Amino acid sequence: MEELSDPSKNMARTVNVVSSRRLIQIAGRLILEFGVKFWKGCCTCALGLMLLYWMYGSLVALLLLFFAIIGVLYNLQDKLLYYPEEPAHSRIYVELPQGLSYENIFTHTSDGVQINMVLIKQPQGRFGTAPTMVFFHGNAGNIGHRMMNAHCLYLYSGFNVLLVEYRGYGKSQGSPSEDGLYLDALAAMKYIFQREDVDHSKIVVFGRSLGGAVAIYVSTHPHYSRKIFAVILENTFTSLPQVAKAIFHLGFLQSLPNWSFKNQYPSVIRIRQLQLPTLFLSGQSDNLVPPAMMNELYDKSGSILKRLVKFQGASHNETWQSNGYYDAINNFMMEVYKSKVVRSSADTRLELGDGQGDHVEGEVKVI
């Protein structure tokens, strides 16, 4: 008699295989890049260690080697997080909207880095009154890889969509870093609020994966925390150290203190300060960011109007293709509109029961 497999065990086995493959890919990539870029330094260090060993013995040489390795690993962490060149040619070719009105924009951040953005515009009669979504994408590719998703947001939800390209990605200059991405986000917000032809009362901030951490940062920034209409977060994490430990099942990694991680993105701390209406979109088959992290962010969010929508079978990168995805966004937007009207007419805050929001289940269907 054939033994039936346990779905939970199969899922765990699949996640472990994916994690192992990803770890091997990352390790190979780091070794290759390090060897190509720093071969002269490696040779110099090797000669230096040999000299120290000859002069002072093995203990001093081993200590210096240990600290050198720690320093190298710390500074190579960006290579583990940011993938602006994947898929291939992502820094060369950036797809632009087809058949839609748009602007290809270049602006400068406060530290002088030029970044690229694309604003997809509703037809002239609706552009000035439509809600505008500021879209922060994940850690790989460029804004062109999100063009189909942006087209759907334009078509099915009626948004103007401002796609923001991080420094070091696509046509943007510079190199990615945590502080740098925050500055990019602030530059995008400054740009959209300075435009006189968009409705400043309907600015929606959207963030997926790494972009969710950027969205949480900018939505809790003192200058914008009261100006943003709503926030939408999709498959994002609580903090980078926590998600790194969840992805890579390595004993030494679990014991590392959080301060040893170069990139932090402490969303689980910042989310408590987020009082704006917030929609959480969570793919339940996400094998990169554990769905439990979205639950935790939802639970700890300081918003009194928050909704968590779960999409069964949806993976990390394909949740936006799920059946009911745009309905969830549209229903949430309508709820926020209504809450704004109630606040305005009654001149008081909308009371929403215990403030815990609702859980909604969705199914998967590629559209």
Structure summary:
The protein is an alpha/beta fold and 367 residues long. The protein is built from 13 helices and nine strands.
Topology:
Layout (H helix, E strand, L loop, with lengths): L6 H31 L1 H18 L1 H18 L1 H5 L19 E8 L5 E8 L2 H4 L4 E5 L10 H11 L2 E5 L13 H17 L8 E6 L1 H10 L10 E5 L5 H8 L3 H4 L12 H4 L7 E6 L7 H10 L5 E6 L13 H22 L11 E5 L5
Comma- or semicolon-separated keywords:
alpha/beta, Rossmann fold, 2 domains, 9-stranded mixed sheet, 44% helix
Give an overview in words.
By secondary structure, the protein is of the alpha/beta class. The chain folds into 2 domains: 7-81, no CATH class; 101-362, 3-Layer(aba) Sandwich (Rossmann fold), CATH 3.40.50. It is 44% helix and 15% strand. It is built from 13 helices and 9 strands. The chain has helices at residues 7-37, 39-56, 58-75, 77-81, 124-127, 147-157, 178-194, 210-219, 240-247, 251-254, 267-270, 291-300, 325-346, and strands at residues 101-108, 114-121, 132-136, 160-164, 203-208, 230-234, 278-283, 306-311, 358-362. It has a 9-stranded mixed beta sheet with strand order 1-2-4-3-5-6-7-8-9, sandwiched between helices. Strand 7, helix 12 and strand 8 (306-311) form a beta-alpha-beta unit. Helix 6 crosses helix 13. The chain is globular and about 75 Å long. It starts with 6 loop residues before the first helix and ends in a 5-residue tail after the last strand. The relative contact order is 0.09. The model is unreliable at 1-18 and 345-367 (pLDDT under 50).
